[in-house]
Design goal:
The chain is of the alpha/beta class and 347 residues long. Strands 1, 2, 3, 4, 5, 6, 7, 8 and 9 form a 9-stranded parallel sheet that branches. The longest helix has 18 residues. 44% of the residues are buried.
Amino acid sequence: MPSSLIVSTHERAEAVHGSMNGDVITYSRNVFLPLTFVCQNHCGYCTFRRPVSQGCLTMPDELDKLLIRGEQFGCTEVLFTFGERPEMVPGFEPYLKTLGYSTILEYCMEMSARAIAHGMLPHTNAGILTYEELEQLKPLNASMGLMLETTAEIPAHRGCPGKKPEVRIAMIEDAGKLQIPFTTGLLIGIGETREDRAESLRVISDLHHRYDHIQEIIIQNFCPKPGTDMAAFPGATTETMQGTISLANEILPPDISIQIPPNLADSQSLLRFGVTDLGGVSPVTPDYVNPEHPWPGIEELRRLTNGYTLRERLCIYPKYIKKGWYPPGLKDYIMKLENRISERGML
């Protein structure tokens, strides 16, 4: 491990998850459910966004089937996501109203309640939300998230009102004010510099020092996609990822978990630089943002983390369970799921 690191993987794992023996890498078993692919942003690297059409909403019966499968596969988390501010896109609202909802947030709240009924904890990443909208979602979510991506103004985010750094920072701060256990992260290789990455990490660190709410940060490598404005971009190299993870380990407080996506990044070459988590991995649904990169199975995760202790976790980290930063209605579900993953870990 590089000698410049201030916090070792073991020390960070202990700070994040409590007393543990050895270097621990965690993951969450989840169901990934996009409610819509309609989005007001036009990011230069994205293939998630789709035009308004008859199939622009994931229907309730389809979501119910996936929730049932998630329950059958022992998933503990449902990741709800949708394109940012889809109501701002002309033609979207009539489709939403045919289902009886006036906003996508109402639909998300209904689906969150269904996820809870199936014994799984909702985690919503909905793009930019106001303080009041976060407050509305909080009673039905164990945690929430928003990728900062970068504090730099870059060409990839032209025409993207929700990608203005100050807007995203303000929402992460609002989540802190509301004591919402939160996930954020950096997207590496979209036109930012090393200093931009350092500045983004310092902003995240400062927010956490003030509100103590950031449980994990994702260091995600950009993967170029055919048909996008950035199809010819090279993406982030392994060396850039290693350097960014090391930088995160130096800048971030030790109680923030450092996550990489195991379906996108070369996990085996990155773990030793300070990674403590592999994020949500679904046995039920694809990665809709990067569908060309399938999730590894649990046995593959064990192979990738050879030499470490692989441990399942919930979407709300132990620190925030102890602090009571969860909706009262989720307490019994959280305790039951904690027992379940503890029992699975002993098998």
